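tool_call: predict_structure(chain=1)
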Amino acid sequence: MLVQVGYTAGARSRPSFNWVRNLLRRQELSPEFLASSDYQTSCLFALAWNMIRARLPGAVTADWIEFLRSNGLPAMDAGIGIGGTKGDYVIRFGDEEVTFHEAELAPPTGLLNLNYSRAIHWEHQPHAYSVQWIIDRTHGEEYGGHFYISSYGVRIINTTDTLIAWRPTDKHGTSFAAFSPTDPDPDYEQVGICFVTSNRLATVFQRYGSALHQQNPTDAGSQSSEHSPAPQFGKRWTAEDAAAEEAAQEFILQIVEGVLMSESDVVDV
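tool_result:
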């Protein structure tokens, strides 16, 4: 299974540059849940992108970065249109949260994959390399589901925390994993993310991307852009955020005016 995340060029019959909307029963989910999901996904890809930049040869990302810059494409920024490529992303490590400040965010689009399998194939992308990170795998080598670059006769054994870079124009694919494709909940599980880009993304962005910057970052529409904070890489500004901000400002004002606490309220201990 593959799930696209980040920005999309839309359907071929209805091109539109926007953040993906591919959750089932989306109308049943709160704006806060959707914003949190978009933010967490962007944080995951930001972590992976910075690992790629630090650990893989520069040739893997050199023309990729040039492609992004020359076309002015946004970063994967939870769909809020920050207009930059850096921000603070947060990764949970056990019970702790680790924040990376002013870090480079990921390219605008990618894929989540679960137990993905495909026959040998090749494709064109607007950059020379693609990258996949197998985050977790439950079973050993004998259960298959490995990655092949058949142009060179190479097999890459997938294990937990495997990072793979390849040229999409080379013939590549996977082997079958040892579970039934008709089983809706197999014991076998291989989870990862993939950095790939549609050839249509830049073209659609040039034609329709301006609509992204005209959108109000508020989901509820009750706050005008004049009163809303500048978009930052984080949770979307919602009606609940506006109410909380107003309550906080009122609370501070009451403290300043001495409404909440006077000298008679102070008790010496």
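agent: The two ends are 63 Å apart (CA to CA). Proceeding to next step.
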